[in-house]
Amino acid sequence: MKERIRVFSPATVANVACGFDVLGFALESPGDEIEVRRRNEPGFTVINKTADTVFPSDVNKNTAVVSLKAYLEHLGSEDGFEITFHSKIKPGSGIGSSSASAAASVFAVNELLGRPLAQTDLVQFAMQGEKAAAGVAHADNVAPAIMGGFVLVRSYDPLDLIQIPYPEELYCTIIHPQIEVKTEDARKILRKGITLKDAVTQWGNIAGLIAGLMKGDYPLIGRSLKDVIIEPIRSMLIPGFDEVKEAALANGALGASISGSGPSMFALSSSLETAQRVAQAMTKTFSQFEIENHSYVSKINKQGPKVL
């Protein structure tokens, strides 16, 4: 039986405009890279070899450890593990930093133990890491991080996850302004209730987006990437949001919105060339607001985590 394993776990885009808490997809890059090693005694240690990420001093508050503890308790195991982070998505970036860690740890140990659980079954444990990070056990990041592709959360109780087919040539542009928006804080500002009119509009858009993805209908995907409930509130936390979104659309993006709780923004495009042009336009526009930013262009990650 293996004693150690090194894995990659992808960044993710949650909500996808109109799918708050129920839709997300995985990226090919960036992501977390961790190494997990068996210990000779119960318990967990976390080693940080990243350049600029600060971890909680209490390892039991680390999302990777929280998720792994839930997984091992389910198995009735008292095994101990050492988790070494070699690279880490910046916390508070809006592209699934906490979920990448949670997904990586449970995937890695499930592999070390000979896959006692199916990969989809790991989501429920990674959700506990999300609860520790954001106060809510949402699955729209961890589900695609573990399963790959686009994943719809049809129900939370019971948990019902559905992988959604999508066009092969769909590309995502991510622009990450170097400001931090904590998921927990971004949830606190949301309205507790919405109008029936907004609800009907949102239902139509999420249904249209799912249909567009499954049919490979790019115009329908674009028409459906609209959020009338969450984006109008959270966009206020992102300086230059409207201008950056307009720049993406003007340069051929199918649609653009906030990635997760922000501050990162995403745009979907129907080709690599368009996605790269969109990245340049979004970067240039953010720079006009004197905000340092990083951009990524990625295909949709079909696989989820992988062994390195």
TrEMBL record:
GHMP kinase C-terminal domain segment(s): 210-287
Pathway linked to the protein: Amino-acid biosynthesis; L-threonine biosynthesis; L-threonine from L-aspartate: step 4/5
Enzyme class: transferase
Gene3D superfamilies xrefs: 3.30.230.10, GHMP kinase, C-terminal domain
Keywords, sorted A to Z: Amino-acid biosynthesis, ATP-binding, Cytoplasm, Kinase, Nucleotide-binding, Threonine biosynthesis, Transferase
GO biological process: threonine biosynthetic process
Compartment(s): Cytoplasm
Similarity remark: Belongs to the GHMP kinase family. Homoserine kinase subfamily.
Name the UniProt record assigns to this protein: Homoserine kinase
